[in-house]
Design brief:
3 helices, 32% strand, mainly beta, 188 residues, ten-stranded mixed sheet, globular
Length: 188
């Protein structure tokens, strides 16, 4: 029996052969609030995540998480300490306490590592008014770790700081990241 991610991998190989050579691939399942790392056709790792508390969507200013095929355009923060705060993809020199209770923080910071995403699907996550790169959609650490596992972000894919460090070391620049609504989503 084929795994749920086989149609996704097949679609990537057919529609994005120039990028599909990058292995591993990450798949974010928004219905499960999980990110799966798939290497050589098998799940290598799985992490809890948080996508947008505003739902799914691609419109600039919506604060929603965009669906579709992306690639890691840039990795930021390789040597940053846990809890390092980033503003506009630059380290501020500050670190923030990490809150593990399920509550919002005053700062709602981007922390530790950033994997900057570039949308690859014209009209889905690439193009005027819907461009993931221009919308500053990332996979990143958060100071609100207690909210991981439920929709809580403002469009990005949040991870615990330890998990984003692990993912940062696993995925190379150029690796594909698919943000997928769930098992019932039709492959395009």
């Amino acid at each position: 029996m084929a795994s749920w991610y086989q149609p996704i991998l097949q679609r990537l190989e057919e529609r994005f052969p120039q990028y599909f050579v990058a292995d591993p691939v990450a798949v974010v399942r928004t219905d499960e609030q999980r990110l799966y790392v798939i290497r050589q056709g098998e799940v290598q790792a799985s992490y809890p995540v948080s996508t947008s508390r505003y739902g799914l969507g691609n419109t600039d200013g919506s604060l929603k998480t965009p669906l579709g095929v992306h690639r890691i355009q840039q990795k930021i923060g390789a040597d940053a300490p846990v809890g390092a705060v980033f503003v506009a993809r630059e380290p501020t020199g500050e670190t923030t306490p990490i809150v593990t209770e399920p509550r919002r923080t005053e700062g709602d910071h981007i922390t530790t590592r950033i994997l900057r995403l570039e949308g690859l699907e014209q009209g889905v996550n690439r193009g005027e008014g819907i461009d993931s790169l221009e919308r500053h959609i990332y996979i990143h650490g958060t100071d609100e770790e207690g909210l991981i596992g439920r929709p809580a972000s403002q469009g990005c894919v949040r991870m615990t700081n330890a998990d984003v460090m692990d993912l940062f070391n696993t995925l190379p620049e150029g690796a594909l990241v698919v943000i997928h609504q769930g098992q019932d989503e039709r492959t395009r």
